[in-house]
Structures are given as structure tokens and as C-alpha cells.
Design brief:
Chains A, B, C, D: Residues 141-287 form the GFO/IDH/MocA-like oxidoreductase domain. The structure is a homotetramer of 388-residue chains. Chain A is of the alpha/beta class and 388 residues long. The first copy, chain A, is 32% helix and 24% strand. The mean pLDDT of chain A is 96.
């Protein structure tokens, strides 16, 4: 069985998620398209890199990602660093002929994203951007229903991504709150997942109206480079600095198909944790999903008899997308791990079978265009068309 | 105990709701502020009016609402007719010195609403507009929490009103789909309830961005004047006419306080019936409500210990607003009737105690201004300020 | 239109519920089978009786229920007193040729219940016992599905009735905690509702295994005769007396059909308010209901395609039982009032049309037999057959 | 860092679950107590064993589990075979001085389980039985609340495990329906998980009343040895054989503490997939859990103010048990994998730190005693005490 050597750049929580995906993928998808080998991991210093190798099961480690590009044994570069380094690493990897999977958002801006897209296209390598949530079986089931025409022509897509890990002003100023590193705030970090899902399920977005807000205007400076995701609160006499990105974004949306919708994302929603929801109204039915209860998809078919019509709560399992590979009955439990295992599988399949995978850098670029348009619209107060 | 004589103009489903409210109010609120007497009901012809009197327990009936104004024994005029007659009846009633409760929306336009407001102010009568949903105990509980500061300064209000009774294109063209009668579609009929709730809970709205859509552009002409609410589908070779109102409305909203939000309403949401929801994010907590599960309010307090923090599902009962008057334990069951009983109580109290009740014609007028601005914004594609 | 004169014995919270049902019934069910006239109300003293008449809209009042039996104008006797007086009043009413509706449980014991049943049978009057919850539209819909064979042969019925209004030991010792008045505790007060639903949906019960518990063994003596349902807590130096009834009951059940099941009821379930639930597994499907979300019935049909199978959440409305009479769209709101309006309608229909209504005194007697058997089984530790 | 060599006996779906747990454990728990090495996997024939090694990442494979016992490099024996081989393998492993983790139920009977317990005690090795569900963070959180006294003395534990994967009579007769292999049916396979949770949270069970049923009395004989969990339905002219185990079990329970309860498990609950639920009523609060929504625990504290009391929906995350090790925010997603990773961690910790882990073979033996008593009670119709 073919093996593909992976070099992973970055060793934070996303490194953990990607590592277990590589380890677990062949266990779930068998026969596997190829066996990913955790060959080399890169982190910012020797100690962190060595630890990452031991912890995540990589054969070796390094502190300079450039070394990866020179190593001909590496097939895949996996980028799990903060957003500001995505472009440089990805372009170098493309030039070196590596297949690339890059964490989301693809980059800080559409311009950066476009350069990355150009690079992978020129190099002819496979590329993927890690909007993993669409690989939740229930979301893939929504896609299946839509493709089968089960809810008819889509009229409306209404999506949210609500969190509260940084709703407390004492939550530190990690890189996610710095425009120079992150590009944007709730928009790039979380709203882009919903934009990805919207495009996946309802088609291309043509025009947006945005309203961005920064509720918490300064936060305690964080010592160390780690992204603590709000679990450590600053106390005592702390130094604060300005937040220069949005922490809430509201939009109205028009799709190329004529459908309309809205996407809202905030990090200030006390009680919401990873509240990725969407509701789709079609001419023949509706679909509702909430990632916090991700084993379930709710769907209503208008052609059910009127005395038996209502949302069905479908627990995904063997009868649904990815179901044969995952667990033998529904509700044994889809976790974050499983979404990443499916993602790893589909990426590696695209390499082995020389096919396109989605979402790829083009999708990442489109999402960056939409993100930039949302900010522009928020600034101008005007509807803004998406143009490449 | 004082008695107040009621004349009700209109005998449709809303007539039923108001009638049981008058009958039931003293049973629930005791001692009652006054006992409403169902004195006279008016409907469009003799047969309908006679039936309405027998069915709804009125002492007498008439076919011309003008007769009511000449009858000095009538204290209260209750207007439950389609929207196009609200202004004429209400202005006449005000001139005749009657206290007025009028179904929502107050009128077809802000201009009509303003004339009604001017009339009741000039006459010095009590006036109320029947946005009953805010009298659901769980919504009143949300108000109480907000006033107590329990969720802090409000950042965001996100409301929906989703229905499906006319999602089928075979559903008839009742007056609710004719601009000349209704003024607007989903906007006036249902979105205004959410606008009322938004103002009630989050304060005055200063600016709106609207996107109106008419998905079903023609419907079967309906024989008879009844408002069938979609339960009777047209079949066979039916004549169709154009729908000239919206059936879906999406908005972004800015409040005077600086809070932001969105309100969406549609009649094309298969599987949603009377899906009035709102979620409010404050600096110190969040509130969620869904009228389809109206006995419950969900609230999250940020100052709960981190290992015990989460949305609390509060079932309203004796410990909550209106609870002493309603049922002795939570979840015995709040229905539409109970919201109307509370409304009748508060209106009659305002007469007896000579106090202002809310929502009144001024609130109705403000909501009409907001509605007109939403349509104007939808037409222009621009943010529109609310100005009297 | 025919009128039927009602005398109501008792003026507590159940008096309220029955009164609004009489007032509202013709408003909802039109043409009504007859118009109930609130003629006479009886309470324990002059002040209470006079207040009840004013509050509940009765024409006159009395303090001795025997007066009712001598009044030939009275057609219906409505018994809403504590359990210990049901038998005496009902037997007298039967002898006087009155039709009778009696609050549940029918009496304190099967023996008492049998005497009541014998009396109404001998008198040939109509009789009903007010297990109103089965008239919740969603429960009637469950019955319809079962009768249509939609879930096949029933295998299992699992019911609960959980409350917390007396979970606090400071909650007073109302008559509901005295065996001499109530007959039993959670069993008679709440479990009997679920037994009624079980018989209604799954057929006759043949054998029971019971386990009764009294967690709170004494409570503060309550001043005054009112049944406060736990809303007033005793404070300070209060006198306590023993509770001599169960406050929790667990059972296993065998039905005549061969189906099995369990019923559990407790007043010590913090956070549960009026948590009447049942889940039924049939060979071809399942049904779930929770009264706290009573507008909904959940049903799963096994013959749905495997990729679209799951519980459907049906919101009851015009397409479902009683729907034409109630509200024009689902989720406008079924409350306690509506269940009582349907009950009043069906009882009055049985009088006008000379038909049997269910649950009647025979059902009440069977439920009393089952209740007595549960207590006997709990005492003996043995399965106990139900025998008349 | 210390390494521990694992030999896994069996390569079915449980083999997958255990393998990803070994691979992922150090990624989540860092520093790990030791790094488990997937050394050797055993399956019934060469092809299956070779495939298991490649798929699950084991260094080598074998077809005779006895070989494992002779290999001194093996530290841990992991038994994931059908129930009838647990005792023989475990006793041999104990004699060989291996630490043992064994899938549940521990064995077919209490007698078998006792011999296993004696063997591990005599050998002084570490032992665990893989009732993994109690390691769901939300269940561990329930334990924490109980230990902190947050819900007071426990009055009632009500548990269910409902599934539908074999509700269809065409679902094949896998080993799970043969008493000679499985020992019992729904009881051993699924009810034991709830018994484990009941003992974990509410303490030792002293007495049971059981009612066992076999609804589907014969099933198609299955070709091949695989346990298909009902995903492949038999069609055409199939040979059927008798099912000699229960497919539904209902019980009443008494705990040593005086608490009471019930446990029910069935494989015939259409629409329920992995519906492990429990509700616990304590003197000061209640807890509810449903594994199908496993990221959540619901808890009600009676000492909340009466206007703010209700079930809190707690999404487990970093502030809760195992939270530091798992994902950085709640609701990223706990799946089956995560429960197995925690299990692997706690087992390996017990070896490294020479401590007892729970549930161990003693727990497995107690659960087997309870299971045997449930069957005995069902046969006799009498309450049955648990005696070693």
C-alpha cells in the first residue's frame, strides 16, 4: 500500500487534530487510498518541535519550515500556523512540488489568497483548505438531499457561528485579535466556515451587505506565543492593547441563483460554544443543522402528508455520507476528530487519484473575496458585489 | 365591580381570541380591574354578525360599525378587521370618545398610523395595539431579566418569525397578500411582532437595512372574504392573480443604544409554524426564546461559575411575570388564549387606572415607520434612518 | 340552540379551568352541541361562593351542594372538590338525574369508585372523569396514528409524570398529602393521568409491579383549606405533621395485549414541572410526547427510507385532531385551557347526542383498581393482577 | 518516555476504536503516562490478522492468541473478542502477568466473571473492563456534581439504553443473539453500560426486579463471523434460527443507599440509536443526560432563586473533567473516539502509577451478578437480592 510522507508546520491544537486524523484515517477508511506517514513536524523552537514530534507521533522535527521544502521525501505539506505565514509557506511548498493542505482561512486577504492559488495552479500540486465542518456527516447529508432535489430550489440560507470563549474582556489578546496576524476577527476565524458551508450547499455568493462590530476594544496582552482560546483569563494589573479586528459580523447575502440569506458570527454570545447553525428553506422543504448537536440533521419535506409533516431528526450513521467508514450505528458519536479524519481521507484520495478536492485554494480565494467584500461593505454601508 | 362594555368590530379568528380573553380575564386576574361585557359585535352581514354574537357570547350584533360610535353605552371599541379599515374605524371611535384596542399592524402605512395616533391623543382615550406575543410570560421574563441588569448592556438582538402556512403556491390569495388591504406582506403581518419585541426588549431602532422578496408571485383567487390562513388549498382550474406584497423580509438593524441586530420573517419556511424566536447577547449573558416552546425561556448568566455555566431552561409559572394570575405550576400550559387574556387585562387596567399601556398607538406608529423604512431600504439598497 | 345548565361544586384552580372551558367551548366548537350556562357555583362559605360566582361568571351561588340536587333546572353537576367528597356528591347527583363530570382521580379507592359507577349506571346519566391531558391534540394524534396502524403492534409503553412543586420539604401539607382526603399521593394525583393515557393508547392493563416511596415524611401544617400547590413555603417555627401518602411511585406494567411497560411519577424531580411524557415502541415505529412541549408529537416510522428515517416533530394544528376547532395554524399555542375546552365539548356532545364519552366512570374505576393494585404490590413486593 | 507494548485480540469495530485510542492518547494527554505501542494484533485467520495490522497500525499479527502470552515483550493484553472467549483469554493473560483491558460485559455470567477476577487478583496485574461511556466528559461531570453535594442525597436514578439497529426482524442473527456466545441479549450488551453508570453515580445496587422480553423470536442466520450490527438486512429465502436471548429488559432497582430507580434497555426502539439516558433526582437538584447529545449535561440546582431555576445545559469543555486534555472549547465535538482515548489514558496511568482503575474486573463481576439477578427475577417474578 502506497505511503505518503507528511510534514506538518505548526504544533498547536490544530496540530493535534491533524495528527490524529493521519493516524486514524486508514483505521476508518479501509482500504485506505494511501497510508500517511507522520514524517516531520516543525515548530518555532527546538523544545516545542521535539515535544510535538513525541506527542503527535512524528519521526523527526525541525525549527525551520524551509528545510521541509528541500526534503524530497516529503509529499505533503500541512500548514497549521497562524494566518500570516500561510502564504509564504504555501507558495514555497508549491514551488517545491509539495501537495498542500492549509488551515483556514486561506490567508489574511484575497490578494494573499490569490497568490497562493496561482502558485499551486502553476505547480500542478493538489491543494486543500481545511474548512473541516462541511465534512460533518450531517452537513454532507444536507448536500445529498439538496442534490437529490428533496427540498427543491433554495430560497434562503441563514447561517450563524456563535461562540463565547472571548466574551470576557479579560480573555487575552491572542494572535486571533491582531489584524496583522489574523487578517480579520470573527469574520476570518469563524464566519468563513459558514461562508464555506453556504457556498457548498447553496452555491456561489454574488453580493453582500456587511455590518462589523468590535465590542471589546482592548484586551490584556498575552505572554508567550500560544493561542489559548480564552481558557486562561488575565488577572491583576495587566497591560492592555487595542483589538483591531471585528468580534461580531452580521451580513445579508445574495446568491447567484437568486436565493437570499444572512450569515452572522460573533465571539460574544454567552452560552454558545461552537454554535454553527444553518437553516435552508427550499421550495419543497427545509433543513436545519446545529453543530453543537452534530450527529443530527433536521429536514422537513413538504410532500409528506399534512398530518405527518414536520422536521425529521436524522441521526447520521451507516446509511448516510461517510457512514460506512465511521461508526457502525448512528449516535455512537461524531466528534471533531471524525471531521478531520474525513478531511484527511478526501485530501489524500485527491492526491492518489489525481482529482480535485473541495474546498481547495480556489474556494479559499473566493471566501477571502467575500470576506474582503463584507468588510468593505461594512465600511461603506453599501451592498458590495463579489468580483475576482 | 365596574363593568366596561365592549363592541367588537370583526368576527374572524381574532374575534374568537379576543372574546375568550374578555370571558376569561376576570377568572384569571382577580379581583379584576373591571368586568368586560361583550355587548355588541359587528360583522359584514346579518348572518355572520348573528352567528358571531351567538358564538362569542355577545348580547347583540350589527352590520354597520358606525352604529357603535353612536351608542353611548359602549366603552371600548375592539378592532379585529383587516388592516385597511383600521384607520377609519379607529379615528371614528376616538372621535366618539371610545377606548380602542386595535389588531396589529396598526395600519397599512406610517401615515395612516400617524392619523390614528393623532386622533386618540386628541380625544384623550386609551389605546392599545394588539401585539400580544410580548405578553407571553417568557418574553415578559426576558424583559424583567434585562431590567434587572442580569445580562448587562445589550449588544445584539437577533429575531425571526418563520411560518409555512402559505409556502404552498396553491394556498389562496387572501387579503393578506393584497397590498391595498394589508399594506405589506410578511413584514406587516408577522415581522412587526418581532419589531415590537425588539423595541420592548432592546429599545428604539434607529436605522434599518432591508431586503424584501416575493417568492410566490401569484396565487389562486379566493372566493369569499374569509382569511383561510392557507388551510384550504385551491385545486383544479383556478384563476390566479398577482401577489403584490413581500413574503420574506430580511433586515439588519441598528438600535439607538448602539446595539445591532437582525430580524427576518418569512412565510416560506417549511416546517416552521409560528416560529417567533429571538436571541439577545448582552455583556453579561444571553437570552433565547422560541414561541413554539413558549412555556420556556433560556438564559445564560456569565457570572455563573465556569464549570456550571450554560443556558438555563426556565419554565414560567407563579414565580414569573403574570404567574400569580395564570396557572399554579409551570408548564400546565400557556397557549394563545393566555397571551390574549393578559393583553385584555392590561388594556382594561389602563382604562380603569387611567394609565398608559404599551404597546399603544405610538408604538404602532413607530413600528409602521420602521416597516416603511425597511421597504424603502429594500428598494434603495441603502441603510435608512427612522424619522418621524 | 340548546342550552345546558351547569352547577359547579368547588371554586379552586380547577374551578377556573372548568369555567373558562364552558365560556370558551362554543367559541371554538361551532356550531356547538349546546351552550353551557354557568348557572350555580358552590363553595364552602358565603364569601368564597360569592367571589367564585363573580369571578367565574356564574349566575348564582350556594354553600350547600345538596341544594343543587333539588334544583330541577340544573342539567350538569361538575365536581371540582378534593377527592374525599367525590363519591357522596356524585352519587347524590346521579340519584337526582344529573349528568356528571368529576375531577380526577374518580375517588380515593376502587371501592368508592365502584359505588359511583353503579350509581350513574343505575341512573342512566352521562358521566365523565376529567383526565384532560389525553385531550391534548398531540396525544389524540398519537391515538390516531396507532389506530391507523402506523406504528404497528405496540411492544412497550414507558410513561412518566414528574413534578417539583413539593420537592421542597417546606412546601405545606395540603390535602394532597393526607390519605384521608386524597386516597393516595403522587399515584392518585398525577400517575393516574399517565395510567389513563396508557389505557387510551396501549389498551387495558392486566398486571402491575409497584414500588412506592415517601421521601419527605412530614410537612408544615397548612392554615386554611386552600390547595396552594407549593407556591407558598412555610417559614419560621412551623408545626409539622406526617405525610401518609406516597410522593414517588415506580411501576412495571403488563398489558392485556402482551405489551409491557413502566410508569413512574414523582413530586421530587427538581426542574420538572408538568413533565408528562410517554414513549411507545411499536413493531413499525415509535412515538414520543412531552407535555411541557405539548404542541409537538414526535413519531418515527420504520418504513421511511433508511437515509431519511428519524423522529418527526409534528406540531399539531388544523390537520390534526380537534384542529379545525382550535387555532388556524400549528403552534399558535395549546395551553391548559384548550385541553379543558375539548373536554367540555366532548362531555356536552355525549349528553346532546346520547353517546358514551371516555374516560368515564368505568375508566375511572379501572384506574382506581390499577392504583389500588400498585399500592398492594408495593406492600407485598409481588406482581399483582387487576381484577374487578 | 516509557513505552508499553499492546497486544490486541480481535479486529472488529472495537479493534478500530481501541487502536485510535492508543494512537491518539498521547496527543491528547501530554505528557502521557506512557506511550502505548501497537505491537501485535490477533485475528481468526491470516488474512484478517494481516489486514488488521495494516489498518490499525500494529507492527505484527498472529492468528493464535496463545502466542501473545508467551511473548515477554507484551505488557498489555486488550481483549476485543465476543463474550464467550473473554474468560479463557483473560485468565491466560493474567497467568502470563499481562495487564488486561477487556471489552464489556466482562463475561457471559457472574461465575465466569468471578474466575477472571480471581485470576487478575492472584496475578497482581492491572485490569479494566471497557465500559467506556462513563468516561464521556458529561457523565464525569455528573459524578463531580454529585461528589460535591450539588444535588444532595440521591433519591432516584432512572436510566435507559434504547437502540433500533436490530428492530427489523430481517436483521441477522449475529453472535449478539446467541446465548452461548453472548450470555444475554440487550441486558449484557447495552443495559450493563447503564448499570455501570448507575453504580458509578448512585452507588451499589442491592436488589432488582426484572422483566425480560424477546420480541423477535427468530432471525436470519448470518453467513460469516462478522458482527454486522444490523446494517446488512437479510433478503430472499433465508434460513432462520431462534433467538435465545432477551431483546428488551425492564427493571426496578433498589440501591444500598436507599435510593430507588429503574433501568430499561431495548433494541426495538425505532428512532433511538444510541439513546443512553439517565435522570437523577436528588434532594437538592436533578441531573439529566442523553448520550445522543453527549456534549451536554443538564443539571438543575434547587437553591437557585425561584425566578431563575431550571435545568442548565452545560456543554463540557476545558472547565470540566478531562477538559484540559480534550478540545480547547466546548462543543468542538466529543465522539466515541474521545471516550476511548480517556479510557486508554486511565488504564495506562493505572499501570504506570500502580493504582486501581475503575471499572475493573470487580466492577465487571458486580455487574454480572446484577445481570444474573435480573434474569433470575424475570424468571421468578420476584425481587432478587444481589449476593456475591
Amino acid at each position: 500500500m502506497r505511503k505518503l510522507n507528511v510534514a506538518m508546520i505548526g504544533g498547536g491544537f490544530m496540530g493535534k487534530a491533524h495528527s490524529i486524523a493521519y493516524a486514524g484515517m486508514p483505521m476508518f477508511f479501509w482500504p485506505a487510498p494511501a497510508i500517511p506517514q507522520r514524517k516531520l513536524v516543525v515548530d518555532v523552537n527546538d523544545e516545542l518541535a521535539q515535544t510535538a514530534a513525541a506527542r503527535y507521533g512524528f519521526e523527526s522535527y525541525a525549527t525551520d519550515w524551509r528545510r521541509v521544502m528541500e526534503d524530497p521525501s516529503i509529499d505533503i505539506v500541512d500548514i497549521v500556523t497562524p494566518n500570516d505565514s500561510h502564504a509564504e509557506i504555501a507558495i514555497a511548498a508549491a514551488k517545491a512540488g509539495k501537495h498542500i493542505i492549509c488551515e483556514k482561512p486561506l490567508a489574511r486577504t484575497a490578494e494573499e489568497s490569490k497568490r497562493m492559488l496561482d502558485a499551486v495552479r502553476e505547480a500542478g500540486v493538489k491543494h486543500m483548505v481545511a474548512f473541516n465542518y462541511r465534512r460533518t456527516p450531517a452537513i454532507a447529508l444536507a448536500k445529498k438531499y439538496i442534490e437529490e432535489g428533496a427540498i427543491g430550489k433554495i430560497l434562503n440560507f441563514r447561517g450563524t457561528y456563535l461562540q463565547d470563549w472571548s466574551a470576557d474582556p479579560a480573555s487575552p489578546l491572542s494572535w486571533r485579535f491582531r489584524k496583522s496576524v489574523a487578517g480579520s476577527g470573527a469574520l476570518g476565524d469563524i464566519a468563513t466556515h459558514v461562508i464555506d458551508i453556504a457556498r457548498y450547499l447553496a452555491g456561489e455568493i454574488s453580493e453582500v451587505m456587511g455590518m462589523a462590530t468590535t465590542w471589546i476594544k482592548e484586551r490584556p496582552v498575552q505572554s508567550g506565543g500560544l493561542d489559548k482560546l480564552g481558557t486562561v483569563k488575565a488577572t491583576g494589573d495587566v497591560k492592555k492593547e487595542a483589538v483591531d479586528v471585528d468580534d461580531e459580523i452580521s451580513t445579508l447575502i445574495r446568491f447567484e441563483s437568486g436565493a437570499v440569506g444572512s450569515i452572522e458570527a460573533t465571539r460574544n454570545a454567552w452560552g454558545r460554544n461552537n454554535f454553527i447553525t444553518f437553516e435552508i428553506h427550499g421550495e419543497l422543504g427545509s433543513i436545519f443543522f446545529n453543530y453543537e448537536r452534530r450527529d443530527e440533521l433536521q429536514v422537513c419535506f413538504s410532500n409528506d402528508p399534512s398530518d405527518r409533516r414536520g422536521f425529521r431528526t436524522i441521526y447520521t450513521g451507516p446509511a448516510h455520507p461517510y457512514g460506512e467508514a465511521l461508526w457502525p450505528i448512528p449516535a455512537l458519536g461524531i466528534g471533531y476528530t471524525e471531521t478531520k479524519i474525513v478531511e484527511a481521507h478526501d485530501f489524500i484520495s485527491s492526491i492518489v487519484n489525481d482529482t480535485e478536492v473541495s474546498p481547495n485554494f480556489y474556494d479559499g480565494y473566493r471566501i477571502a473575496l467575500i470576506s474582503d467584500a463584507i468588510i468593505a461593505s461594512s465600511d461603506s454601508g453599501k451592498w458590495t458585489k463579489i468580483t475576482e
